[in-house]
Each structure stands twice: as structure tokens, then as C-alpha cells.
Protein: Sister chromatid cohesion protein DCC1
Organism: Glossina fuscipes
Amino acid sequence: MEETKETYVRSLEDVKNIIKYAKLDERNLTQVTQALYYPSESVVSDNLKLLELDEHMLQQIRSGQKLYFKGGLTEKVVLCTDEKTYDVKGAEISNSLLLVPELKFGAGTSTSPLKSPRNAANNSLERSLNDSTEDDLALDRSLEQKQILNTFHEYLECREIRPRFRKLGDLLLLTRYSGPENEEFIDRKFLFSFQQLQDTIQCSRKQFMEGLQKYRAIELQGHMRILESEYEYRIINLMVGLINENSWIIDEVEKEETMNALMGIAPQEIVEGLFEIYAIPTRGKEERYTYKEDLVARIVAQFILQPGLKFRVDEFLSSWQEALPDGMKCEEKYLRGLGIFDKEGSIAFIRSLNEENLPLNIHERMRLLFKTKSKWTLEEIEPYIEYFTTGVLSASTLMAKYARSLTEDGIRYYVAKH
């Protein structure tokens, strides 16, 4: 017959003896004593973890929203809210923390009716205790048994990070759409629905939507797709070309006419998807739209800036402007993370450098950046290192760690550290 180990339960007499042996004055103690007991072997609590919450996560929980963990077998786990993404790692606690359900604190351990209001609690309690005899206290003292549910030696520490979009781009690249005639060459097992991608990519729902917008993803026959760059440029070029063909004012683009004009040239889902990405309703003009200048300018610039080629800046800017519809302007800020300027002697050149194609390892990326260009200003290099920044780690801090600075003609540059 199996013997069961009985747990010793403290009595009020035990409590008085402990107070006496500890040389404490019972008149300075509140009237409720709580005896703590470690959990028995039958209590299952190893599935409990301590999680650090910042104000945003706390508000999400209070408003009834969910927090959810994401991560594949080879990925570091992240914690997501509907808006933000956090890196999660275990951190040790110097002192063990006990989890005790319904444990009372402070005034909750006093049965004195004189403890309220709050600002008079200590004085009233002290008065009531000092006016009592030890016998009265013995009669008034109560004992409550409390079970420890778990003992924690570490907690999960959360640090807000930028969303990890690169995996989204890598998955979408597997099935780039380049026209219905090439669909037979697409491996169907790499086609993903909106929900499948959202469950896989390590970011919040809001950030996931931003990621789809960043890669200009379109839903085609139930699957999220991105377009092959030359195919996308060809369709966009046809769409914006209708502005001049139809003598439209730049902010009076007609959606229905655009759809009809491209019928038979590209699937309707593709044209509608691109229209939603590249155009916005014109304020004050019903059923009229305006193309986003920055997006149109970027895809045109990307088409001109073929990898491996370089252009004189003045020639490039001229070609870029000529390729845009009337009413749109090319601006250098639209090249952010797409191309870099460099001087060879007295002549300024521009060449392609797409941030999306750079390594994800900070050391490899820095090596490649300084191999491409020997010295950078912070403004120039920032688009290429933003991926590694956080709320507390700025681009300038990264450069201070991975590069060295020098000043020429009053301008600070960064060069390779070694």
C-alpha cells in the first residue's frame, strides 16, 4: 500500500511561538497571518511563465485583445500584439518569486475597522493595537493557509523590434507573377493564402498589412502574389500612360476607364490590385483618383537603374523625368534604399543598390556597403541599416559601433572600421 506524505499545517499557537522566537512585538503586527505551503507533487504548474509587459501590451490585454507568439522551428520566437512585435528571451531573476493566488498585501491583512481612510490607516491601526492587550490580540488574530502555485527563477523579457518582413519577401519571390502564359512554370506548393502568410510571418497584423504594401502584394485566385519587376513596370507604364492619352488632369484619373483599357492585356485582378496600391481617391472629386507620385517614380527609377550600370546624375535625372507622366516630378528622396550617389573626380554618378537584396547579417551588410562605397554620410547609409535599428538603438549608434567617423570640409563621414 502506497504511503502518502502529509503536509504539516501551522496553527495559531505555532504563529505566536514564531513571533516570540523572532523577538517581534505582536502589537506592531496586523491581525491576519498567512501561512505559505509549497505545492505538492500533484500540482501541475510547470506550464506557467512570467511575462514582462510594457504599457502597450498591458492596454491590449485590458481592452480584450490577444497577445500571440510566432516562430518556426529554426526561428527565434517573437511576441505580437495587433500593432507591435517584440523579441522574447529568458532573463534570470536574482531572487526567487513565489506565485500565491489570493495572497493579501498591506491593509488587506488588518481586520481593524479603524484602518480607513487610507491616509490614517497606519495611525489608526497602531492606536487600535496599542490599546489592546496581548490576550485581545490572541483572540483577534486569524490564520489563513495559502498554497504556493509556482516558484519562478526567470521571466520572459520583451523588447520591441522592427517587423521581420524579409521572410515575407522571400516567400513571395518564389511565385512571382509574370503573366498568365508563365503560370504553368509556378510550383503550386509555394502559393500561400493571406491567412497562411499572416500565421507565418513574425509581425503583428498591422505590420503584416504594411509588409504586403511594401512588397506590393496582390491577391490572385486566393493566393498572395508579387509581380516580376519588368512585368509590373510594363502594366504601370500602360496605366499612367492613359493620363496623357486621354488628356486627363493628373488628379482626375478614371478607374473604370483604366480597367477597360487594359482588358485583355492583364488579368482584371492584377490591374485592380495595382490600382489600389498605386492610386488614392482624389479629395473633393468623386470617382476620380490620383496616382502616388513616390511609388510611380520609384518603379520607373528601378527600371532605369539596372544592376551593374551607373549613370551620370544629370543624365539619369533627365531620363527619369521624361519617363514620368506630365504633372509628376522626380525627386532624390524617392530613391531612398534604391540607388546611391557617388563622385568620381568632379563628376557625380548614380548606381543601383537595392536594400531588399542586402544580407541580413549586420557584419556582412556593413562589409558590402563599404565595399560598394568607401565613405558614407549618416543620411546616405541610414536606409540601408534601418533594418537593424530599434526603439533604443538608432542608426548613429550602429555606425558608432560598426564604423569609424571622420570629418571632411565640415561634413561627417563614416568609413570601414578595419
